[in-house]
Amino acid sequence: MIDAGAAEQTDSAIAASTLLSQDEAFARIRLLRSPNIGPVTYRQLLSRFGSAGAALGMLPDLAGRAGRPYQAASERRVQAEIAATRKAGGRYLFHDSPDYPALLAHSEGAPPILTFRGNTALLDRPMVAIVGARNASAGAIRLARDFAYGLAAAGFTVVSGLARGIDGAAHAGALAGGGTVGVIASGIDIAYPPEHAELQKRVADQGLLLAEQPPGTEPLARHFPTRNRIIAGLAAGTLVVEAAPKSGSLITARLAGEMGREVMAIPGSPLDARSHGCNQLIRDGAILVQSVEDVAELLSGFDGLPKFPPRGVTATVEDWRLASSKSAEDGDSAVASLLTSAPVAVDELIRQSGASAPSVHMALLELEIGGKLLRHAGGRVSLA
């Protein structure tokens, strides 16, 4: 049980529509902040044990099967995080809350817990992501602002990452037109880049600001790809306005395509390297768009579900129990022997091992909690 002070902080920091008790909400935050617990593992633990509190109690045993000692995140650390979230004006949004965005919930590796500031009603509108170059040209900045304004005025929520260049222009245009969601790579209390501090405040006050990282987290290079997956996962389609090859914007577009969402690009001059990424996307199959109407028409036929839902674990609690008893006997060693440092699809491990899907997932879960497994995009895993 959490103490009275922590309970009050937890209650005030949880989205009002959630049905979680204070103790379970606290336990979920603690579970996700514990070592070697990512989005996939978090959901599998909840599926197997029924609650975060029960899962926390089993973590040392699960890690012990992989031959490693284990210590979950401390209650004091979680209490400090909740206090910092509350101080920043933020609240928690859990993956099974009615306010959690439906499209993001269908994306692979969706964050189990987000912190937010602002109006979650914007998540109920159709969403489109607008991304592009940080060192964007003046013409591209104007295009991003005009497209965002027109789409927001037409009833879309515009999603972007609050970066310099195209992102900032998209947020500014959408704020004037109707509504925007900013997804940041830092904690909810950190403004980045510093010159966008005022813009980030406007997004939080007039739109919605989302963060996956705990408060106080400075944006690191590894946080931006995970931020990009949230942007792609929120939206029915992603529009790239201007981007160089191998840019973060193209990563967002690729993720959107893998999720079954629409990928759109505005063509540019082949003489400008900042247009090469968009032109490459169009060559590779992205939809060429030239107006707000083009985007609105394309997304109007989106039925609210991804074209290719991610592969997930659908095992029942009883399946997990059976798998747990078998994994200790023969599942772990069989699965571990098939793994190398090269990522391989979980489906392939199931096929080659000859074991049941719950048994394989159970073995992978134990290896991951024990620090011996890494998860990669596309449902692939490798040895750590």
TrEMBL record:
Q: Which InterPro entries match?
A: DprA, DprA_WH, DrpA_SLOG, WH-like_DNA-bd_sf
GO biological process terms, alphabetically, are: DNA-mediated transformation
Which sequence ranges form a coiled-coil region, renumbered to this chain? none
Q: Which domain of life is it from?
A: Bacteria
Which residues are in the DprA winged helix domain?
A: 324-379
Q: Which residues form the Smf/DprA SLOG domain?
A: 92-299
Which protein family is named in the record?
Belongs to the DprA/Smf family.
**What's the name of the protein?**
Uncharacterized protein
